[in-house]
Design a protein that fits this description.
The chain is of the alpha/beta class. It has 15 helices and nine strands.
Amino acid sequence: MSQTTPLPRPAAPAARRELPEAPFLAAARGERPARTPVWFMRQAGRSLPEYRALREGVPMLDSCFDPEMLAEITLQPVRRHGVDAAILYSDIVVPLKAAGVDIDIVPGTGPVVATPVRDLAAVKALPELEPDQVSKVADGVRLLVERLGETPLIGFAGAPFTLASYLIEGGPSRNHEHTKALMHTSPEVWHELAGRLADIALTFLRAQLDAGVDAIQLFDSWAGALSERDYREFVLPHSAKLLAGVAEYSVPRIHFGVGTGELLVAMRDAGADVVGVDWRIPLDEAVRRLGLNGRAPEKIVVQGNLDPALLHASWPVLEAEVRRIAEEGKAADGHVFNLGHGVLPGVDPDVLTRVVGLVHEL
């Protein structure tokens, strides 16, 4: 386990908006709102022409630290599509950048780290994150709370495994070979690194929560590269620490990863209130698995899981898929309609708007 000192608990969670009529929050609590709520991962960003116009000439990470810009980008899909939740425009590497890690987002590649972290000395050299280092993000959240009206705002962070993978590999990886090798060869180094990253992500989430976000999502984007045994040994303790660290805020906690059909129960056991499901398994099968052994949940709530690629299909094909997923989602106590991963760059925004309208009719 990490040898880092546990972060102090906040004196008291900040007051937040009362949104009793918000379908997204009702479904996330395992209730049945009047309509199925829908939002899309990566709804704020590159698929929208208004986003591309606003971001022109502005580096990605710079835009994430500009309160007015990040607020406007977050609001764009709410205005255009009528989605039931906004997700904060940010990136999982924002807290690393804020803390002083030499990391950047390279267009066409993704996060790239100048010097990979692969030994104990490099882990111990990682900086901690102080809340004031993400104050600009918190300022953006406060602007959004004022401007969103009755629409809930989702904050998010990257989970320790996914953040660690970028740091160890030096950038995106298909096989995560350096990460897996470090886990098994030097488990004490791995746990020290994962513990430090859990602390950084927790500070980032608490800053968002103190500023007023209504829910949080933990992205463990690449956890699907792991077996369940490795996930439970090397990852679950750190994600559980992170999710437990925001429990006192009493907001829905969503946990999502790609290719994690075999990990759904373990991800639930880490402390998720809502489990995100990618497109590889049907929602009703996900619900069946989540009802199995482990931490027996009072409510089974799922989010997902339209294949993003099918947003390029003909409308009759897409409509049939949306209807199927909405029907399968009824197996859960609560269902938030979403994609099985993020909106792809070339998607026609009008298609997303049409999907929102269909989901609201069902």
